[in-house]
Specification:
By secondary structure, this protein is of the alpha+beta class. The protein has eleven helices and eleven strands. Strands 5-4-3-2-1-11-10-9-8-7-6 form an eleven-stranded antiparallel β-sheet. The protein is globular and about 55 Å long.
Length: about 350
């Protein structure tokens, strides 16, 4: 299933690239940040998910699981599941310390955060409260690329060092055994250890300030002015159907308003489990031939789910985010499951 989800997201992002190059006579443009040292911008992040029956019959909770598999890759949920929760509403502020052609350096201050607690888990909630207070009180400085496409902690030692002291102080075993994290040097190495672009510190940080992780998603996608439509609304005839609609306008000041809809089918068939079973029974099983056969199947079976992603971006003239909304909807039989993230400039 992991491979299926990964391929679906490759398809998701490749379709944006396809949409942005579909009209060769319309140039692809990028958001161009033009921030100034001394600027202070406050943001609010919120998220919500829901599931409902469309006809009053029993809800099919498998749809909720499919929704989770999509948002898992997009929202660092794999890391957050370790804690069982994530902030659903929170505020943070960015203060621009340095603005050069090579980078933006900003202080980040986390404000009030809500919604991260786990039902009926008193000890875990006490720990989460302590961690929330740690990140709220910590001095956090981030360095962004000039196009805001990615960021890093400016001081790669300071925050892990403080985080180690914090964990020793509260005596948590959440991060592993005493032998694994007994000394600061070992802890800091583990905290910075890269895992597909993430590490342990970023994982915990994502729980309490998920909004900052939306910045790369916001700035990484270019745009084409006007209306673009590719494909047709999903008909259920083939799981290879894709549908993209993009509308973008730029006013005289350079403010950008964009709406994107992308619909596709996500195949949740556990093909790797099937291959594993075949290999156990037949060591000479031709996996390549089997995969080619599977790729040729277009039927929208019971394991295939329609997914729609709706994105709205509003950008100020100087490149600051005014608003960002991303809603993911999975609809199967009589059940609709939805996950929405919002980022708002206060």
């Amino acid at each position: 299933m992991k491979r299926t989800v990964f391929l679906s997201l490759l398809s998701f992002f490749s379709m944006f690239v396809y949409a942005q190059t579909a009209l060769e006579d319309v140039p692809v443009e990028c958001i161009k940040p033009n921030f100034r040292a001394g600027q202070t911008i406050a943001f609010n992040y919120s998220s919500e998910n829901s599931i409902r029956s469309t006809n009053g019959k029993e809800i099919n909770y498998d749809v909720y699981g499919v929704l989770g598999s999509v948002t898992g890759r997009m929202s660092l949920q794999d890391i957050r599941k370790f804690l069982g929760s994530v902030v659903t509403d929170g505020n943070f502020t960015l203060n621009v310390k340095e603005a050069t052609p090579y980078a933006y350096v900003m202080d980040l201050k986390i404000g009030e955060v809500r919604g991260y607690k786990v039902d009926e888990q008193k000890e875990m909630n006490e720990l989460l409260d302590s961690m929330a207070e740690f990140f709220r009180s910590a001095h956090i400085t981030l360095t962004f690329a000039p196009d805001m496409s990615h960021w890093v902690f400016t001081d790669s030692d300071e925050l892990p060092s403080l985080f180690y002291d914090f964990n020793k102080q509260i005596g948590t075993t959440l991060l592993g055994t005493e032998s694994e994290f007994g000394d600061k040097e070992t802890f800091m190495k583990k905290a910075r250890e890269d895992n597909n672009g993430n590490n342990m510190l970023r994982g915990f940080f994502a729980v309490f300030c998920p909004g900052i992780f939306r910045f790369p998603a916001f700035y990484n996608n270019g745009f084409q002015r006007g209306h673009i439509e590719i494909g047709a609304p999903l008909s259920g005839k083939s799981k290879k159907e894709r549908y993209v609609v993009q509308d973008t306008s730029v006013d005289s000041l350079g403010c950008i308003v964009q709406k994107i809809k992308f619909c596709y089918y996500l195949d949740q068939f556990d093909e790797w489990g099937k291959i594993s079973d075949r290999l156990e029974k037949d060591p000479n099983f031709d996996m390549d031939k089997y995969m080619q056969k599977q790729e040729a199947v277009t039927k929208v079976s019971k394991d295939v789910y329609p997914v729609c992603v709706d994105i709205s971006r509003n950008v100020d003239a100087d490149g600051w985010i005014n608003s960002y909304d991303c809603t993911i909807t999975v609809n199967k039989n009589n059940t609709v499951a939805t996950f929405t993230e919002r980022l708002r400039r206060n």
